[in-house]
Amino acid sequence: MTTTLYTTDHEWLAIDGDVATVGITDYAQQQLGDVVFVELPKVGRALKKAEAAAVVESVKAASDVYAPVTGEVLETNAELAAEPALVNSDAQGKAWFFKIKIADKSELGGLMDDAAYKAHTA
Amino acid sequence: MLARDDQDSLKRTPLHGLHVSLGGKMVPFAGYDMPVQYPAGVLKEHLHTRTKAGLFDVSHMGQIALRPKSGKVEDAARALERLVPQDIVAIAAGRQRYAQFTNDEGGILDDLMVANFGDHLFLVVNAACKDADEAHLRANLSEDCIIDSLADRALIALQGPKAESALAKLCAAAPSMKFMDSGPHEVAGLACFVSRSGYTGEDGFEISVPAADAERLAKTLLDNPDVMPIGLGARDSLRLEAGLCLYGHDIDTATTPVEAALEWSVQKSRRSGGARAAGFPGAEKVLAHFDKGASRRRVGLLALGRAPVREGALLFADSAGGEAIGQVTSGGFGPSLNAPVAMGYVPTSASALGTQLFAEVRGQRLPLQVAAMPFVKNTYKR
Question: What ipTM score was computed for the predicted complex, to two decimals?
Answer without folding.
Answer: 0.88
